[in-house]
Amino acid sequence: MDVSSLYNISSDIIKKAAEDYSLKEGKNVSSGEFGSLFEKAVQSLNNTNAYLSDAENEKIRWALGETENTHELTNALQKASTALQYTVTIRDKFLEAYKEIMQMQI
Fold it and tell me: Which of 13, 50, 61, 77 is paired with 32 by a 20 to 30 Å CA distance?
């Protein structure tokens, strides 16, 4: 699996996982390391959910007239959009890897 495209991602968790993969390419990965990688992916999902929640809260505050600062609203929406795009990209890469593993002959 080619992970070179993951280096352009700004998430520290994803960069670290991509670097770890590159260092261990061709070596057996223990289940503990896979579990750690999975925990980092779950943490990344939680961060994405937090960004989406923040964006929703900013939209509600702006719609109710509690704030007139569109800069904060725009920043929150952009963070949420970017985090969601990265999450979908990572999900697609995981699914691609899963399909590749399932097609392997034993």
Answer: 50
